[in-house]
Structures are given as C-alpha cells and as structure tokens.
C-alpha cells in the first residue's frame, strides 16, 4: 500500500501558525519588554524561621539601617540580578574570632546563601588551613601535611609572625614540606576550583609550587600582596602544595592563607576567624590592607567584639573600640568604596564565668554608631537572643556551650538561620518598595 501524507487545508495551516505564535508570544514579550519592567514584576518569597524558643526576641529578627539603606539598595540590586538572572558575582567576607574559626556558623550561612542562586555557585574563596597551625578547624575543612609547622595567632600577645589578612600564620623551616587541602560543601562533596592563590611570606631561598598533573595556563607572583597564583585546567577538588628550600642555607616559609576560585558567577562566602581575636588583633597584621584588597569584598560581616569586651566594665573603652573599627573599615574602603558593612552585635556572654558581661550593651551601642557613620547594617544578635542574661536560656536549650561564650553546633546553625532570614526580609522589602 502506498501511503502519502495528507495535505493540510489552508485553514488548518493558519490555525497551526497561530498556535505557534501564541506559544512564542511570552518569550517575545520577555525579550522586548524593558528589563526594568521585568524586574519590577518579580516576586520574592522568603522563608520564615520557626519560633521555637520563647526567650528569643523574634520581632527584632531583622537588619537595621541606622544610616539609611541607600548603599544597601545598590547591593540588593546586584543580588536581584544574580538571583533572577544568574548574572554577576558577590563577595562576602565574614570576619571575627572563635565563632568564625570554628566554622559551624559560617558553613551554615554559606550553605544558606547558596540557596539564593539556583544553578549558580560561587567560589569557595579565602580560607586558612588551621590544622597547619595546630588549632581547631571547621568540619568542612580537610587538611594533611608533611614537615614541622608552628602556628602563631595575632590574638596571642606572646606570638610573633608576619601576619596577613587571616590574622594567623603557620611557619616551617624545613627544607621540604607540603600540605593538602580540600573544602567540603553541605552535601560533603568537595568544592572544585581552577584557580589557587597562596598568600605567604618567605625568605628568598624558599619556593612554593603547585603539585598536580593539570595544565597550568597562567602563573603569577604579586610581591606587594604576598601571593603566588596559578590558573589551570581542568578543575581540581584537592589542593596539593609543596614547599622546598633551594640551597643549604637556613630558610623560612610562613603561610598566611589560601584562595580557591573558579571565576564562576555566584556568591562567594569568605571567612577569616582567629580564636581570641579582637579588633586590635587584625590591626597588628602588616599585610592586612594589601591582601584584603585582593578579595574585592562587596559585603563585610563584622563579628569582632566578644574579646574586646571581655574585661571589667570599668576597663571597656567604647570610643577606643569604635576607633579601632574605624581603622579596619578604612582599609576595606580603600580597596572598594562601595563595600557594605554588616555588624553583628556580641552574643550575651559571661565574664570570668561568674556573671553576665555588662559590656554587651556598650558594644551594641558602638556598633549602632558605626553602622550610622558608615551607612552599614546591624544584625542585633544581642537583642534578638534575649539581651543580658539570655545566654543561660541558650545553655538550658542546648544552643550554647557551658562556658557561656560559645554555642553548640545546633546553636550556631540556628543563629545562621536567624541571620539569613533577616537578610531575606530586607531583600524582600527592597523588592517591594521599588
């Protein structure tokens, strides 16, 4: 049997082309419609955090902008393009003391912010391999090494080193040494990277090299910021670095930090944290300013203050505390004048393990002043967690450690969820008022 295609009537062909046009119409409208109108039509629904604890002041769980939100609106516009269009990169730096070094808080925040940009994943960013310095590290950081290394922290008065922006250093004098580093996501997969920057200070007879079979596309050294960088292909998920002495003379190599990048769009959540660090600690770091400039920060989350305020009430100088913060902020602004600053007020703590620290409200006031002066934002964690004496309730709820300074993993992650919800609310408010 010979079967031939049936010819469509003119009427059927017209109906067919009409249907095609109707199907294509939304895409055509989207392409022709001005981008401002498309952006104005967007809707953003943020997740609300369960109000599981009666002692937490959920009504205060928001970002405050005592100096106005004009600067932040410019930042939120960039978040909007990134979230809805997948366009752009935003670099966040969270800097503090042991709350940051431990990693539970910042790992959860990084995971939360990654949810904002579906299909667009930022770089892993700046880290310090704390294991080399013989101190605690985030669970998401895996590091092994060879050779003898000595750790030095800018927060310890008896320590001395050429510190960079990390405020911590690991030094080896061995003729041959190495370290291997990988960083894990919330799903336990390692972050891939095709760019590595190693920050260091060393004598001229100490060399640092990338150990890998990948093809190195570019290698450069920046003597001002103190780093060596490699760009390569394909991507890796474990860094392997070797250090060796080039002659028989004594030599020294001091690691100041590592940056893992891939040039992808997305949100990069960098962290700098040192146990016991205060504002004074980072001001002791001679390479802080030059290295901070390499991060090109868009947002700096300041969580420094618990150690500054760990003293008798009569010894805490609020104006000196603000002045030290002003000095740090000046260094960030020199690198990027549009950097937005977010201040996290101190959590309630005990002083001398005996009674609630009365300096918490003074830090709260200082950060309000700083936010107003620098058009920053405030996440008033001191008020949100319940104010003076609230740490006892957090201990009883297994959210805080018995030292009444630090938190449990559950507590840090709950704080991260509170902070993320506050950010989402402010971003949603920005969209609503445009």
Describe the 3D structure.
This protein is α+β, with helices and mostly antiparallel strands and 434 residues long. Helix content is 32%, strand content 25%. The protein has helices spanning 10-32, 35-40, 70-85, 98-101, 104-114, 279-282, 288-295, 318-335, 360-373, 381-384, 391-396, 409-433; strands spanning 63-64, 89-96, 125-127, 141-146, 150-153, 168-172, 176-183, 193-202, 206-210, 215-222, 227-236, 239-245, 253-261, 266-273, 299-303, 340-344, 350-351, 355-356, 377-379. The N and C termini lie far apart (67 Å). The model is unreliable at 1-8, 19-23 and 25-41 (pLDDT under 50).
List the helices and strands and how they pair.
Layout: H1 10-32, H2 35-40, E1 63-64, H3 70-85, E2 89-96, H4 98-101, H5 104-114, E3 125-127, E4 141-146, E5 150-153, E6 168-172, E7 176-183, E8 193-202, E9 206-210, E10 215-222, E11 227-236, E12 239-245, E13 253-261, E14 266-273, H6 279-282, H7 288-295, E15 299-303, H8 318-335, E16 340-344, E17 350-351, E18 355-356, H9 360-373, E19 377-379, H10 381-384, H11 391-396, H12 409-433
Helix pairs in contact: 5-12, 7-8, 8-9
């Amino acid at each position: 049997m010979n079967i031939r295609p049936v010819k469509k009537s003119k009427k059927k062909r017209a109906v067919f082309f009409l249907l095609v046009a109707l199907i294509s119409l939304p895409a055509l409208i989207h392409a022709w419609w001005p981008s401002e109108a498309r952006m104005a039509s967007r809707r953003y629904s943020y997740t609300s955090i369960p109000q599981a604890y009666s002692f937490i002041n959920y009504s205060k769980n928001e970002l405050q902008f005592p100096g106005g939100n004009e600067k932040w609106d410019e930042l939120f516009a960039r978040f909007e393009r990134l979230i809805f269009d997948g366009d752009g990169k935003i670099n966040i730096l969270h800097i503090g003391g042991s709350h940051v070094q431990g990693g539970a808080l910042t790992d959860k925040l990084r995971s939360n912010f990654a949810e904002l940009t579906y299909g667009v994943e930022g770089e892993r960013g700046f880290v310090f391999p704390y294991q080399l310095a013989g101190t605690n590290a985030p669970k998401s950081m895996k590091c092994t090494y060879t050779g003898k290394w000595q750790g030095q922290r800018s927060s310890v008065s008896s320590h001395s080193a050429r510190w960079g922006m990390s405020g911590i250093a690991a030094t080896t004098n061995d003729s041959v040494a190495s370290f291997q580093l990988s960083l894990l996501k919330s799903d336990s997969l390692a972050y891939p990277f095709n760019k590595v920057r190693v920050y260091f200070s060393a004598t001229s007879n100490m060399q640092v090299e990338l150990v890998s079979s990948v093809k190195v596309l570019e290698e450069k050294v920046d003597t001002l910021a103190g780093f060596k960088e490699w760009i390569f292909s394909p991507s890796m998920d474990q860094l392997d670095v070797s250090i060796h002495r080039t002659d028989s003379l004594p030599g020294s190599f001091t690691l100041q930090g590592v940056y893992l990048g891939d040039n992808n769009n997305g949100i990069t959540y960098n962290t700098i944290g040192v146990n016991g660090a205060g504002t004074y600690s980072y001001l002791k770091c001679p390479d802080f300013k030059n290295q901070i400039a390499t991060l090109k920060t868009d947002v700096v989350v300041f969580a420094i203050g618990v150690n500054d305020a760990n003293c008798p009430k009569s010894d805490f100088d609020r104006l000196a505390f603000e002045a030290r913060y002003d000095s740090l902020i000046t260094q960030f602004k020199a690198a990027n004048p549009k950097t937005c600053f977010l201040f996290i007020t101190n959590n309630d703590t005990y002083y001398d393990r005996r009674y609630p620290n009365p300096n918490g409200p003074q830090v709260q006031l200082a950060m309000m002043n700083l936010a107003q002066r620098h058009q920053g934002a405030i996440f008033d964690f001191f008020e949100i967690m319940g104010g003076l004496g609230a740490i006892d309730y957090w201990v009883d709820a297994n959210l805080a450690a018995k030292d009444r300074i630090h938190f449990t993993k559950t507590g840090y992650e709950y704080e991260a969820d509170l902070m993320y919800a506050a950010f989402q609310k402010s971003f949603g408010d920005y969209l609503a008022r445009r």
